[in-house]
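Today's session is about reading a structure prediction critically. Students often jump straight to the picture, but the first step is always the sequence itself: look for stretches that repeat, for charged clusters, for runs of hydrophobic residues. Only then move on to the predicted structure, which in these notes is written as discrete structure tokens rather than atom positions. Here is the chain we will use throughout the hour.
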Amino acid sequence: MKTAITPTRSENFSEWYQNLITAADLAENAPVRGCMTIKPYGWAIWELMRDALDQRIKRCGVQNAQFPLLIPINFFNREAEHVAGFAKEAAVVTHYRLKMIDGTLQPDPDAKLTEPYVIRPTSETIIGEAMSRWVQSYRDLPMKLNQWVNVMRWEMRPRLFLRTSEFYWQEGHNVFATHDDANADARKMHRVYGDYMRDVLAIPSIMGEKTPEERFAGADHTYTLEHIMQDGRALQAGTSHDLGQHFAKSFSIQFLDTDGVLKHAWTTSWGVSTRMMGSLFMTHSDDDGLVLPPAVAPYQVVIIPITRDDTSEQLNSFAEQLGERLINAGIRVLVDTSDMRTPDKMWKWIKRGVPLRVEIGAREMDENNVTVTRRDLGKSSKQTMATDAFVSDVQNMLNQIQQDMYDAVVRRNKTMIHDVADLDALESGLSDGKIGFFRIKYDLTTNEQFNKLVEKYKISRRCLDDADPTYVFVAKSY
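Below is the predicted structure for this chain, in token form.
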């Protein structure tokens, strides 16, 4: 069977993913090594994802703010454990102007900064410094801040949306008077992410705490959301960290408590990034292109008038009137009246993952009908229905697509989670080519035998099982 994306997922999943990004016109590699240019259609998806999450974050009492891109290097030196986690990825600004030397612009040797700046890989340090000034009393707590920004972590093996040197994210940073409050908040934001990914991205998450070996540098606890890709690999989609008092002590975030005693605060941080887009695309898409949940589809419905020279004006007008009715009903719609060939239009929107494709020919127009196809189900879902009935039912159809896409991933994931009794069984599954997550007793993964499997099969501990933290999930990952 002919497919739009070659090779197919089963033939070469990695290459399929790269070609999917191109076919759906989402992004491209930038001239800057390791960076990407997100194209308009890709950015429209990100905006919908961002706005939906931003609403949920604000409902938690969090306020958005904006902090500098450049961070003084001495801020990192004040938190040794944290900086050790990012030192190899740091991009550093050392000069403040360029100069023409031997016919080319180069950093001016006389313009070297007294103290270099680090382009933010994350903002705990600079936000911590601000909080040390903003927090004075128990009345200032809790303080809940978030920013939507770009960050830089020098990436040696870039892959669009999954690992790029520059990426976009939100990072939340909260301060509390007690450790119980801080830990409860870290867990709360973890759940907020899980609900968002379920309801908006139609992706079920494996949620749990990172093991000590895998937790965020400088954190007491890291709570993660792991997604299972169609090739069985894990993708970390988001994290929430209980930072204890590490940053509060490093940056003197102190408050005068109700008992009149000056105390160090407790902080958390939490973030998700454009990496979620990679998870979205790899979780749902097929060999014909992107498949988007309606909640994050830039166009939930595309209307394609199938015109001939003698009917084009009437058909286009009919299609545009239908488009207006759908827009008035709150649906994101595009009426494609371009001069592309009809088959090319159809393939364009199939590859871009539009949830509902509506075709209108002369017969449909005469009978006041539309022919509707669901992207997630393909040709088997094609049906002709009255225009009025479609307008009345379109939101229900989109809701059903959203739910069906989630349920399909749940069913697939169940086939890719394997309980193993010991390390020999784990190795047997890996050597046999079994894909997915392996659930095993955590204490079995703390010896040299497991370390050898990590090296041989490139696996890692993804997270402890929330239902029983004596178990850990192990998988290959992106």
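Discussion point for the tutorial: The mean pLDDT is 96.
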